[in-house]
Amino acid sequence: MLIFNDISIVYQGDKIVRVDHFPRRPFVNRGVYYFDRHVPKALQARVQRVRVVLCLHTWNEIEALNANNRLFIQLDMAWNAARLEALAVCRRVGVLDCSI
């Protein structure tokens, strides 16, 4: 397993098996913490955004880190569900190469 700044890559033999993106730290603007994450390219058309930026409504770093991690996991689960839904539609329609 290789770990870079915010990505871990797991190899099985010479094939990449999994790529995990670790949550980035929330950023601070005027003392208030914000969540920031890029939308995956395959979902940008569906979400109609390139980035998601949300105010965490806290000045406390620990609360911000906890809220940031929760939002990261919730978005990951929602995006994975959207990918699976799109993949199911591709299979129903009969598209062989579905780039999701």
Give a structural overview.
With 100 residues, the protein is an alpha+beta fold. It has a domain at 24-91. The chain has two helices and six strands, in the order βββββαβα. The strands form two sheets. A three-stranded antiparallel β-sheet has the order 1-2-3, with no helix packed on it. A three-stranded antiparallel β-sheet has the order 4-5-6, with helices on one face. β2 and β3 (15-21) form a beta hairpin. The two termini are 24 Å apart. The model is unreliable at 1-5 (pLDDT under 50).
What is the percent of helical residues? 40-55%
- Provide the spatial order of strands within the biggest beta sheet: 1-2-3
Biggest β-sheet description:
3 strands, antiparallel
Average residue-wise pLDDT: 79
The whole-angstrom Rg is 17 Å
Q: Number of helix segments? A: 2
SSE succession: EEEEEHEH
